[in-house]
Amino acid sequence: MPFDIPALQADAKEAIKNCLTLEDLDKIRNKYLGRKGVILEMTSQIPNLPVHERPIQGRLINELKKEIAILLEAKHNEFRASISVDEKPVFDETFPAFKQELGHKHPLSITFEEICKIFQQCGFSIEEGPEIETEFNNFTGLNIPLDHPSRDAFDTFYLQPQKHENNTKAQKLLLRSHTSPVQVRVMKSRKPPLAVVVPGKVYRPDAVDSSHSFMFHQIEGFLVDKDIKFSDLKGMIDLFLKSYFGKGITMRFRPHFFPFTEPSAEVDISCIICGAKGCSVCGKKGWLEIMGCGMIHPNVFKQVGYPRNKYTGFAFGMGVDRIAMLKYGIDDIRLLYENDIRFLKQF
Amino acid sequence: MKVSFNWLKDFVEIKKSPEELAHLLTMAGLEVKGIEKKLGDAVFEIEITSNRPDWLSIIGVAREVGAITNKKFQPKADPPQAEKIKNNSILQIDVQDKKACSLYTACLIKDVQVGPSPKWLRERLEVLGLRSINNVVDITNYVMLETGQPLHAFDYDKLVLPIIVRRAKDSEEILLIDGSARKLTSEALVIADNKKAIAVAGVIGGKDSEVTGQTKNILLESAYFDPVTIRNIVKKIAISTDSSYRFERSVDIQGVEHASFRAVNLICEAAVAKPIAFVRSKKIATPKRTIIFDVGAANKILGISLSPVKVKSILKNLGLSIIQRNKQLVLAVPSFRPDLKISEDVTEEIARIFGYNNIPLTYPAISKQLFEKSKYDFINQIRDMLVGFGLSEAKTYSLISRQFLQKSNEEQLLDKSNELQNPLSLEFEVLRPTLFASLISCLGRNINRKNHNLRLFEISNIFLEKEALSLGIIVCGEEVICTDKQKNNIKNDFYYLKGIVENLLGKLKVYEVNFLESGDIIARGKKIGIFKHVSRQLCSNFDIKNKDEVFFSEIYLEELAKIVNCSIKYNPFSLFPAISRDISVNIKEEIKFQQIEELIINNAGNELSEIKLIDVYRGKNIPEDHKNFTFSLTWQAKNRTLEEKEIEALQKNICEKLVQGLSAQIR
After folding, report:
1. How far apart are CA B624 and CA A254, in angstroms?
2. Which residues are paired to B257 by β-bridges?
3. Does A101 touch chain B (CB under 8 A)?
4. CA-wise closest residue to A295 among A318, A312, A317
């Protein structure tokens, strides 16, 4: 008995026409075109038909299937079109966002990271040393005699003898007045080649004011190998300064004195505030003193047990507080240690 | 130190303007900090580094000018009187400590008319900011400024010879020319006569033998004192003078007599006096200092290639003489250059006269080294995570006061703490044994300045028997996030702090974290830190006017580093369907969350994959002193589909146990 294709066709059309939601449309699709749907049911009945009926009915079923599919598709598109016309706006793009307040790194940390990164990219490793140091590492090992005026520049805080496991009568302990002691530590613990950068806290008994603090931060760096030259030092420093302060700055080296380097130099850069024209920051000179450096003194190599003339190397050091203050325009060093959130939030 | 441009011209030809010369000096290592135009002269304010005592004189700077500008330095010759006054028995000196004083000379000048100084002398001193006193004193100052050799004039008639250079006797007293008195120890070196100490050697003279308007005869001292000895005396008696400053850094032993003759000559002219006698102590053999210098090696280490001719010319201009020639040079070091000891010192001289800025830039070949994860990386990682969570980083002073530890109820830590011998003040006397004191006062400052929503952390060392890295976190206040159809009050309370700590540890792949009632934080079985609620009492100890509660945690990073294991291993998750059920339970207020959670977990079978608190409710429909928790539980098996009835049975079991074990009511 053939199926009543026209009736099915009319039912399907009617159902699709009156359909109101996508869900219902899906139900209709399932009813007619699904796994257990009408079309497949009819198709499975074809073998039961007389042979001469089969191709006819098969064709009619196929046509119905196609027609239903087309109607479903059309209705679906109708739904889609109407959604974009009738839908109310879901959000106001100008509204304040849902966001938590950002956290902030301390400007000294940012400065440390930027400087260290430049040297790391050149092949330097980062090491740290203890803040409590021995007199040997802080002075003697660095060729700073304890009884010469050059010692005065490195006035230090001494610890009361007791408590710390290394603090005995035989070995006076102090708070390191520079990061250079780590040079001694590293050179004693392994042999060249050495390329090391040392960030750290240092202490000096300076009265606190807008540009001095008894606790501040330095970065030390040193390179020890065979045949390291003074011109290498200049090149390295030039690369660092231009990477950190920008390609447009110029640099100059001035002879100076440090007990642990010979030759010694201080390095100035053209003032980043006034562009070397002269302003209050650079004291009208147009130059800013940025760091000290030099070739490591043979007496330092002697103290760490390196044979004479076997190695040469250079060392440099800079005050990170000062550099951060220059870079960010911070006019009072105390702001760095007060940690007012209105200050921290700016970085 | 102040230097007169015109005075320099007495010793070297200068064609440059003061500004040009100042620049040249700065670029050669004598940093000119400022130029003052005064009385037709230009005065340079120069910063002299402690290794160049020879620059503490006009002739030293003039010699330098000659070397830099390639002009001849013209020292003054010894005045003709030098030969006329000879040692005779009038003057007797006895140097008892020859190590402390390797050369002592004295000159007797008679019929001195002490009076005002001639105009040229007054002007020279005034240009350098010195007051004129009288002709004799002024001349001793003048010669010191010119030659770098300090001189001292005694009133000869007040002395009883011989002059003795000795150590002071213990408790020996002396009245000084500045009016103050000192009780000396045997560490001090004194100039004495037969009766008593008449001067603290190299530092300051005694009042009794001071040159006054009535002085008729003068004994002029010019000597060399050991720098370390003078330095010790200066520290002991707490007096520093222009003289001691120079002796501490070492004067030129070969210039001691010249300075004396120069002064004697000027005094005799200005004060119409007559030089009578001159005596010097027995000469101590000072070995001639030489340095072997290799031009090639110097060029190599500097990265330049100067010709030997050019190098020798520089050395000559600096006052070094070359006494031998092979492949290397043997240089004789002049007595006024105590800083030149090794060949590297000479290399520096070559470099700075040649000009540091004329040396090219090269780039070193940096040998490869394996990069290992370091402490620095660990700290950066933690810092980045905390900043990512929304906290801000503080950096506070490592030094605190004893009072701080008392105020924060941590006095017991004082026993283990390190104190300074020479603190700047009591406020900064102790090296902090914990980050709490610094962070609570930092927080307090912020609160009192009306900053709210505070979430601060610091990573720094703390100091006990060992120095150790520590992380401190302190929170207070709340953040209100208001957007359309959603308002959130995120309180910076204990649960927030706990979340930060757990998230931080979670990022480091440390998952088993326990917060104990004792205030300890345990991870992987080890104590890695503490946490605490900062009581109102404590807050008021620090004068903090907070309306919200304050919470603090300290994580010992050295301990944490030991248990961190960042190797990740993928754990395949199940593809079989999960089943979720909610359990809502009323429970007595005093029962802690952990008890309830543990009980549920222990009775939920082996396939419980997640338990999440989704609601907490107190109020209507809940019995008094009870709280209501709603949990969402999820079960999922690794290798099969779970059946509904299995889960129902487990759920039933859980509910029964809650009722039995904790007197809970199931909703």
Report:
1. 80
2. none
3. yes
4. A312
Helices (H), chain A: 5-18, 22-33, 38-45, 54-86, 107-121, 135-138, 181-189, 230-245, 298-303, 320-328, 335-338, 341-344
As a whole number of angstroms, the distance between CA A259 and CA B50 comes to 10
Q: Which DSSP string do the residues of B610-638 spell out, in sequence order?
A: EEEEEEEE-STTS-TTEEEEEEEEEE--S
Note whether A199 contacts B376, CB cutoff 8 Å: yes
Whole-angstrom distance, CA of residue B466 vs CA of residue A169? 17
Torsion region of B532: left, alpha or beta (phi above 0 gives left; psi -120 to 50 gives alpha): beta
Spatial strand order in the sheet of B189-192: B93-95, B163-167, B189-192, B197-200, B204-205
Is residue A136 less than 8 Å (CB to CB) from chain B? Answer: no
Per the CB < 8 A criterion, the answer to whether B550 and B539 are in contact is yes
Residues in chain A: 347
Contact assessment for residue A156 and residue A142, using Cβ atoms and an 8 Å cutoff: no
A204 touches chain B (CB under 8 A): no
Minimal Cα distance from B246: which residue of A? Answer: A149
ipTM of the complex: 0.90
Which residues make Cβ contacts (< 8 Å) with residue A24, sequence separation at least 6?
Answer: none
pLDDT score, position B256: 94
Does residue A222 register a pLDDT over 90? yes
- Residue A201 forms contact with B (CB below 8 Å): yes
pLDDT of A2 higher than 70: no
Is B375–A265 a contact, with Cβ atoms under 8 angstroms apart? no
SS3 B548: coil
Q: What is the pLDDT of residues B412-427, one digit of tens each?
A: 888 888 999 999 999 9
Residue of A106, A122, A218, A310 best to disrupt the B interface, most CBs of B under 10 A: A106
Tens-digit pLDDT profile for residues B498-542: 999 999 999 999 988 999 999 999 999 999 999 999 999 999 999
Model pTM score: 0.86
Q: What pLDDT, on the 0 to 100 scale, is given for residue B327?
A: 74
Nearest C-alpha neighbor of B548 from the set B479, B501, B473: B479
Long-range contacts of A249-252 (CB under 8 A, 24+ apart): A250/A276, A252/A287, A252/B27, A252/B356, A252/B357
Predicted local confidence at residue B36, as pLDDT: 95
DSSP assignment string, B330-367 = EEEPPTT-TT--SHHHHHHHHHHHH-GGGSPP----PP
Determine the pLDDT at residue B81: 63
CB contact residues (below 8 A), chain B span 302-331, against chain A: 302-304
Question: How wide is the angle at C-alpha A283 spanned by C-alphas A280 and A288, nearest 5°?
Answer: 105
CB atoms within 10 A of CB A310: 10
How far apart are the CA of A79 and the nearest CA of chain B, in angstroms? 28
DSSP string, A47-83: GGS-GGGHHHHHHHHHHHHHHHHHHHHHHHHHHHHHH
Identify the residue whose tokens are 């642990």.
Answer: A260
> Which of A98, A207, A230 is closest, CB to CB, to B302?
A230
- For chain A, give the mean pLDDT: 91
**Sheet of B290-293, strands arranged across:** B290-293, B329-332, B321-325
Q: In this structure, what token pair is assigned to residue A112?
A: 């440390």
List CB contacts (< 8 A) between A257 and chain B. Answer: 29, 49-52
Tokens for B374, please give them: 């370091």
Residues of B in contact with A236 (CB under 8 A): 363-364
For residue B383, which residues of chain A lie inside 8 Å, CB to CB? 105, 109
Distance, CA of B520 to CA of B532 (rounded, Å): 9
Q: What would the DSSP string read from start to end of A215-231?
A: EEEEEEEEEEESS--HH
Task: Decide: B524 and B512 in contact? Cβ < 8 Å.
Answer: yes
Task: Say yes or no: B394 contacts chain A, CB-CB below 8 A.
Answer: yes
Residue B431's DSSP bridge partners are B399, B418
- At A163, is the pLDDT very low, low, confident or very high (cuts 50, 70, 90)? low
| B398 neighbors B461 (Cβ within 8 angstroms) | yes
